[in-house]
Amino acid sequence: MAFIILFVWLSLILRTSAQTPVTPTYTPIPTLNASVDDAPSLVPNILDPTAPIAQELCPGYKASNVVSTAHGFTADLTLAGQACNVHGNDIVDLSLIVEYQNQQRLSVKILPRYLAAGNTSQYLLPAYITGLPDVDEGASLLNNDLSLAWSKHA
What global pTM score does this model have? Predict the structure, then answer.
């Protein structure tokens, strides 16, 4: 009998407490999770003495299929060794497009050699966004105040 009375008493208490809403007496303050401090450092490499020096660690690219054009030249660039991925994922095959646009303007574009419709917008912005200038008439390597130099480090 005592068990039944205890059961009924507990049922009443639980039912009453479930029906009574509890309102907080304070305003909750949202806080950030402690893991927010685990983000990677955003210090630029030039200011970070512990940052890897890509020019010493990475193989660079080798140019091939260099072709002269009316206003400059194009070339295929291929990674000259194992990818080092110091500044993100290295792209193995690139295209180089150099264009002398007028006497004081040189355009140098380096982009992935194999672009598909799915990743073109990731690397190339349309002209209506960038406002890139066209080549002036008569612009050429011979009629330019600028020069492009590269080195051959094997």
Answer: 0.63
- Tell me how far apart the alpha carbons of residues 80 and 59 are, in angstroms, rounded to a whole number: 5
Give the Cα separation of 97 and 79 in Å (integer): 17
The label of the residue with tokens 């080798």 reads: 62
Is residue 14's pLDDT more than 80?
A: no
- Which of the two residues, 151 and 1, has the higher pLDDT score? 151
Query: Each residue of 75-110: b (16+ CB within 10 Å) or e?
Result: bbbebeeeeeeeeeebbeebbbebbbbbeeebeeee
pLDDT digits (tens, 9 = 90+) for 108-151: 999 999 888 877 777 777 778 888 788 888 787 777 887 777 76
Closest listed residue to residue 148, CA positions, set 86, 57, 72: 72
Q: What are phi and psi of 74, to 5 degrees?
A: -130, 160
pLDDT at 21 over 80: no
Q: Report yes or no: 144 and 106 within 8 Å, Cβ to Cβ.
A: yes
Segment (H or E) for 8: helix 2-19
Give yes or no for a contact between 93 and 77, defined as CB atoms under 8 angstroms apart. yes
